[in-house]
Amino acid sequence: MDFAGIIIQYWPRLLDGALMTLKLTFLGALIAGFMAPSLALFRLRAGPVAQFPLRLYVSFARGTPLLAQLFLIYYGSGQFRPLLQDIGLWGFFRDPFNCALLAFVINSTAYQTEILRGGFMGVAHGEIEAAKAIGMSRLTTLYRVTFPHAYRIAWPALGNEIILLIKASALASVVTVFDLMGQTRLIFS
Question: In sequence order, which residues have a C-beta less than 8 Å from that of residue 127 and are 6 or more positions away?
Answer without folding.
Answer: 145, 149
